[in-house]
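Format notes (please read before filing issues)

Several people have asked whether sequences and structure tokens are stored in separate files. They are not. Every record keeps both together, in the order shown below: the sequence lines, then the token lines. Line labels are part of the format and must not be stripped during preprocessing.
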Amino acid sequence: MAGEPIPEWVTYPEDDWKSITPQDAGLDPDGWSRFLDSCDARGASQDEPGQGHQWGAALTRGGYLVQSWGDPAFRTQTASVGKAFTWVAFGLAVEDGLVKPDDLISKTWTGAGQLSHPHKYLDQGHHKTLTWKHLLGDHDIYGHLGGFPVTNGYFWRNASPVEEQNPAEVGLFGSAGVADWANWTGDPFYDNYSHAEPGSVRVYSSGGIWRLSQALTGLWDRDLKEVIDQRLFGPMGIPPDRWHWMTGKDVFEAKDFYPNMPGYGDFIDPPYEVDGHIVRGGPGWIVISALDLARFGHLIATGGIWKGERLVGSEWLRGHHGADSNQVGGESTNFTTLARVAMLGIDHPLPDEVFAGPVKIS
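Then the structure lines:
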């Protein structure tokens, strides 16, 4: 929606979302009813400590809350959804002139003397040609082109090193296998490095995004949560104490982080602080509610504009799923947002038949 004006019927939530009826939201009664009938909203069993059976979701249009399911204020860790915030932190660095996407990461941070093994240093091996864009991508597609194959310590340790897979497809949410180009040792901690020439293969790798979050912390010379709080969440009305970005060390030390995948975070290697700043879990692991995720979705829908102020360029905003049960998304045609945590049975965007016109401003 770059360059297109935001319709006058689009607003922004204050301390709380204002609820309106589907009719006032410009939704067709029959289409909306069919949409609701097609939903199978239910909580997901993520086997996370203390979660129980709590879950929630929020659907908004034009900055108004139209529908919620479960408890939309319930907060839990949202798996890979946090990658969308890592993307924004990088985009803000580009906009501030700190870096260019095609710059070598080693120009900013090599990890020498900080990473656990010399073969991981970003001025060694395949890392010599590793750019920020390789790990994070551009506005069209996520990166995962850095040659990092590890995304789950439990699966990596238990996977076969001779599994036959297509390197062009492996790992795009199919993280149990090991690509034939990877030097598998069975130790995810040791193996979290670039095994292939950056740009030559694509594989979904939380290990690569973890390395990115270490380098990005060094680039900003700040805690990435502070960056998001100051530049996005503060202006959007999300207080710092209403969400939490787990640290890499948190996930590494929680051997039962996902109880059915013991040792999931074993690939998350030190340093856990860079220049005195804690390294957040760039691959995800943000603890947040559906109501606050929906604010981020609304920012996506408005192309980075909040109450007339551009917070970030639209090219740095995108939705993301976390496992199957967490999601944030926003679209700029009808200005709808869906955010869900620990929930299954509904997805985004809404079908075209749902919309009858713009939001009716009272």
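For reference, the curators noted about this record: The chain has two domains: 29-78+290-348, 79-284. The mean pLDDT is 90.
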